[in-house]
Amino acid sequence: xxxxxxxxxxxxxxxxxxxxxxxxxxxxxxxxxxxxxxxxxxxxxxxxxxxxxxxxxxxxxxxxxxxxxxxxxxxxxxxxxxxxxxxxxxxxxxxxxxxxxxxxxxxxxxxxxxxxxxxxxxxxxxxxxxxxxxxxxxxxxxxxxxxxxxxxxxxxx
Length: 157
What we know:
The protein has four helices and six strands, in the order αβαβααββββ. It is an alpha/beta fold.
């Protein structure tokens, strides 16, 4: 009986550790309105959002900067229902894809390792490239740069 209790306690500790690690994983998905195919942009963003949750990211730790700040199915009701959360009380989009929102998110997410995905570049964001947002562009690079307000730190976990 004592061995069973010890085994259960060990399994409980392992589960709690895994939950704590999963809650720490941060992700940022960015899709501006400057894309040529809004439907495809929404589809890919939504699929990435779903994939991250299946990989252990907690929904609250996935920030989605999408177009004008609305889930695509909200403004285009004919969008295929496959690209809509099952729970109607859940929204995918956190805020519009603007420079100010990107800077705020990068400041708020104090982790050094954050998964960043853009519809523009996919998962590999080339350092030095210009990331197009609704209200302008930002260079993807290191925060160690002199111009911290115009740069974003991008690392893969």
